[in-house]
Design a protein that fits this description.
This protein has 161 residues and is an alpha+beta fold. It contains 3 helices and 4 strands; from the N terminus they run ααββββα. Helix content is 60%, strand content 22%.
Length: 161
């Protein structure tokens, strides 16, 4: 009789532990998914803010055809950890500048980017100068999520123990 009770207790404890682990896994996946989407949106917003910050300087450099200033601005943009690439295409869709930190990255497959046109106002006319595209990648997202994921994992392990 005592062994039947012990086996029943053992099965109940095992069932509770399995259910807890399953729920912990599901909640962790949902939490990571929400954090991932939130971080993606933040990165997109940050790319827009970076574009607003560099727009006036880019406009001046492109209008004045100042290659030295343009290279300096793009170098400054490339030092921002979020950005892994900058592409500037002229009015005839020719590539004026193409700078990337990684040589293997395909521009066509880039998932995180922000494009903005550069115009110069002259006598109530807008003169199209270029289209600037700034790129980010999954590494920026995963870097931001890494600490959060480790904390969630540690929390789950401690609760399970």
């Amino acid at each position: 009789m005592f062994t039947k009770q012990f086996n029943l207790s053992k099965q109940l404890l095992r069932s509770i532990l399995v259910i807890y682990l399953l729920l912990t896994f599901i909640v962790t996946i949902i939490h990571l998914s929400v954090d991932y989407q939130y971080t993606k949106n933040n990165i997109q917003n940050e790319l827009k803010q970076i574009a607003k910050t560099f727009h006036p300087a880019l406009q001046t450099a492109l209008w004045e055809l100042n290659d030295e200033q343009l290279h300096s601005i793009v170098d400054g943009m490339m030092h921002i950890p979020l950005i892994y690439g900058v592409q500037i295409k002229g009015s005839a869709d020719e590539v004026l500048m193409n700078r990337f930190q990684k040589t293997t990255t395909k521009i066509e497959n880039a998932e995180y980017y922000y494009q903005f046109p550069i115009y110069h106002q002259m006598n109530e006319n807008s003169i199209y100068l270029a289209k600037v595209t700034i790129y980010s990648d999954d590494e920026a997202i995963f870097e931001r999520l890494k600490v959060g994921f480790l904390m969630i994992l540690l929390n789950a392990i401690i609760k399970t123990a």
